[in-house]
Amino acid sequence: MFGFVFGTACLAGLFYNLRRGRWHSRHGGPGRWSWRGRMRWLFERLDTSPGQEKVLVQAADELTEAVEKMRDELSATRAAIARSLRGEAFDAAALRELDAKHDELIDNLRKALRGSTAKIHEALDPKQRRELADLIEHGWSHGHRRHGHGGRCGGWRSARAC
Q1: If you ran DSSP here, which 8-state letter would residue 147 be given?
Q2: Does residue 62 belong to any structural domain of this protein?
Q3: What is the pTM of this model?
Q4: Which of 52, 81, 104, 157 is 20 to 30 A from 143 via CA?
Q5: CA-CA distance, 17 to 43, in Å (whole number)?
Q6: pLDDT in tens, 18-30
Q7: Which segments of the protein form a coiled coil according to its record (predicted)?
Q8: Is residue 91 part of a domain?
């Protein structure tokens, strides 16, 4: 159960970072690429059509909205934990209310993730789905050798890596 929640949160975070421009690059620091630049890179990498791009952007927006709702709850979560610790006696009721809110937000995130990934799956062809799945599973640097960025002894690393 925890693995599913963790995986959901990771994928939502990925789309959130793509959408909102909070990506830390190895070379350029925060904000090196704009949101549009990262999405353009993904679209070029997957060789998508304009219709497919529209579906991917809508899916990212849906996931971003669900993650934003969870982010908005963070201050209320901290306040409820502080209330439960501040009193003379431990206030378990405040944390039970918090659990109910979190369960609802996580359920909404799961629904958004299922809906978004189903839309993406439907919009992409098998080759594009494999490429996107590899990017999600292995990270954004996966497959650089196939795309002409050099391997262990080539590309920007040159002699340092050899």
Answers
A1: G
A2: yes
A3: 0.61
A4: 52
A5: 16
A6: 665 544 444 444 4
A7: 53-115
A8: yes
